[in-house]
Design a protein that fits this description.
The complex is a heterodimer.
Chain A: H1 2-19, H2 23-51, E1 55-58, H3 62-65, E2 69-73, H4 75-98, H5 105-124, H6 128-146, H7 153-184, H8 189-198, H9 204-221, H10 228-236, H11 239-264, H12 267-270, H13 273-291, H14 297-317, H15 323-354, H16 365-368, H17 370-384, H18 390-403, H19 408-437, H20 453-471, H21 474-489
Antiparallel strand pairs in A: 1-2
Chain B: H1 2-26, H2 30-55, H3 62-93
Helix pairs in contact in B: 1-2, 2-3
The chains are: A mainly alpha, B mainly alpha.
């Protein structure tokens, strides 16, 4: 029911956007729409976590009602929806000034709202088909948004690469869906889970399905063999879209992966955990090593997103034995969304004011733009995992959970690899910090002024979120724990 | 006999999917790559119908029909976006050859 309300909201806003000629009206209306979405998502989260409230929606059409429950909200989906909506709100607020020199803003905001609506749909979906429809909707709106500045070559080429890779991924997902449908006769999450629980031995088909699901959702989640779209799409997209992509769209892939794997395939039978662990470690290592040599600030942040996805995958892979691991992973999804969105938005401020993304031209820029610089510094410190900030807690919990695994050799090796990667990552974050704060100012930076206030509001909101979660992580941790338990509990 | 027919259909799906993947990997023309994606999607849709047909022999479940039709519509949207991007790429590069437009590396 709620995503339907979101959809109506989006259409109303889109309609208004087409009607009005006044540009600022469109912007603020879209931001208001995002705010309402966020408020509803928070309300649902509150009800689900503290009231045990279950929201369900079944399609009113006869054929589709055979799917069973179309949408169902549990703690994990409500938690994810809040993350998606909040980053959407920040991106929309930020775009009001950032995009002011572009044309076609109506389409931009309609696509942005559709992106957030479809992300919420992905989070709330209760059967594979609904998930697939929203997943594709998310894909379509994000391809268009990446290629939004279509008069330049870079966005078009990046969007093309993104589209081809993601389209292969979604056909793999569709194939996996059809096999699951053939094996179980239903597409409902609970129906499939029950049918597979009663099946005796795992057949070859089911392993194929697992491989297709990891491959298909992994493209959107940017795990390493399929990551190359991300590093092109993120720098090429408008900055607010980079923040959306990096903060939440790749999390959509992670969410879908967690939901399907944990619900359908018990780890004790199918043993996909070591595979995800290997993927996680490889993803982290490759991304970190390549990130060390990047010269482009947005590209560096894109690699850092891939590294964080690896860390989340590592947390997910141990979710079946330790709730702490999955809790840490979910908490890291929240934290990384905030930190990375903030880092991208600050980089966008530098780009907006200075007009370049190259680190060599951004020397000393933070001293010219103290507020943006401070926010950027805080986001990088949080990404590094400096204790009083939020990134520390989730990284700490994931790595602690890995070390506490019952098998000390497996846990020890994974934990050491993860720690090495955290240190490697600290290296390039520290390099960026040094460049923007300490190096002597370069030529282009000399005339830089502080960014406009609308942008700063978005930055300050996210910075405050980092500080609040960092200083007082208890309630957020509990919500993440509820979310993690809700997906593990299904199996038990 | 029914099992035999099933393996023929599944074989078709596998062949179609392989053709799509091969085409995507080997062709250097953007429009051909879009066609390859459509072939991949067709394979997946066909698999849906096949699975539904053999799950309860005799008829195709209406749910599978609904799903395949909607998924075809989604495929059309993706193709539309892909073709519009191809058009924009052609405007920038005056070619559809992917070897000449791979400026993005690392």
């Amino acid at each position: 029911m709620v995503p339907v309300a979101f959809a109506i909201l989006v259409f109303i806003v889109g309609y208004f956007a087409e009607e009005t000629r006044a540009r600022k009206v469109v912007d603020w209306l879209a931001t208001l729409g995002m705010f309402c979405t966020l408020a509803i998502a928070i309300k649902i989260l509150y009800k689900v976590v503290f009231g045990g409230f279950v929201l369900q929606f079944t399609y009113p059409i006869a054929t589709l009602s055979m799917l069973g429950t179309g949408l169902k909200v549990d703690a994990l989906s409500a938690f994810m929806a809040v993350i998606f909506s909040s980053i959407g709100f920040a991106a929309s607020l930020y775009s009001v000034r950032y995009m002011e020199h572009d044309t076609g803003l109506t389409q931009y905001y309609v696509l942005l709202l559709l992106l957030v609506a479809s992300l919420n749909g992905v989070a709330y979906a209760a059967d594979l088909f609904t998930l697939f429809v929203f997943y594709e909707m998310m894909g379509i709106s994000s391809y268009s948004l990446v290629a939004f500045r279509k008069h330049q070559w870079e966005p078009v080429e990046a969007a093309m690469k993104y589209l081809f890779m993601a389209a292969i991924g979604s056909t793999a997902v569709l194939l996996a869906m059809s096999m699951l449908y053939g094996l179980t006769g239903t597409l409902n999450f609970e129906g499939i889970a029950n049918a597979l629980k009663n099946a005796e031995a795992p057949t070859g088909y089911l392993y194929l399905v697992i491989a297709l699901l990891i491959g298909g959702f992994g493209v959107k989640a940017a795990i390493v063999p399929m990551h190359s779209w991300l590093i092109d799409a993120h720098p090429a997209a408008p900055t607010s879209i980079s923040a959306m992509l990096s903060g939440v769209v790749i999390k959509g892939g992670v969410y879908a992966l967690v939901r399907t794997l944990f619900m359908f395939f018990p780890v004790t039978v199918y043993h996909w955990d070591w595979m995800l662990a290997v993927i996680g470690v490889v993803t982290m290592t490759v991304a970190n090593i390549i990130a060390l040599v990047q010269e482009d600030i947005k590209r560096l942040l894109a690699y850092s997103s891939i590294y964080n996805i690896g860390l989340i995958m590592l947390g997910v892979s141990i979710g079946h034995v330790s709730v702490l691991g999955l809790t840490g992973a979910m908490f890291h999804v929240l934290n990384h969304a905030i930190m990375k969105a903030l880092a991208f938005l600050c980089a966008g401020c530098f780009l907006h004011v200075v007009g370049t993304r190259m680190l060599s031209d951004l020397k000393g820029v933070a001293r010219r733009m103290p507020i943006t610089g401070t926010c950027f510094g805080i986001s990088l410190l949080a990404l590094m995992g400096v204790p009083p900030l939020n990134g520390f807690w989730s990284k700490f919990w994931i790595i602690l959970a890995v070390f506490l695994l019952p098998d000390p050799v497996y846990g020890g090796i994974l934990g050491m690899l993860a720690l090495i990667n955290v240190l490697l990552a600290t290296g390039y974050y520290a390099k960026v910090l040094r460049i923007v704060w300490m190096d002597p100012e370069s030529e282009k930076v000399k005339e830089a002024k502080e960014a406009p206030p609308e942008m700063l509001i978005a930055l300050i909101i996210l910075t405050l979120a980092i500080l609040v979660i960092g200083v007082y992580p208890q309630p957020f941790f509990e919500i993440s724990e509820k979310a993690a338990e809700s997906v593990i509990g299904v199996l038990g | 006999m029914a099992i035999d027919l099933f393996s023929w259909y599944i074989g078709t799906v596998v062949v179609l999917y392989s053709i799509g993947l091969y085409c995507l990997a080997s062709k250097r023309n953007l429009v051909k790559m879009v066609i390859a994606i459509e072939i991949l999607l067709a394979a997946a849709n066909l698999n849906f119908i096949v699975m539904s047909y053999f799950m309860r022999t005799g008829y195709v479940h209406t749910l599978a029909h609904a799903i395949v039709i909607i998924s075809m519509a989604i495929g059309a949207c993706v193709a539309a976006i892909a073709l519009s991007l191809v058009m924009n790429a052609y405007r920038h590069y005056k070619t559809l050859d992917t070897r000449k437009m791979s400026r993005l590396r690392w």
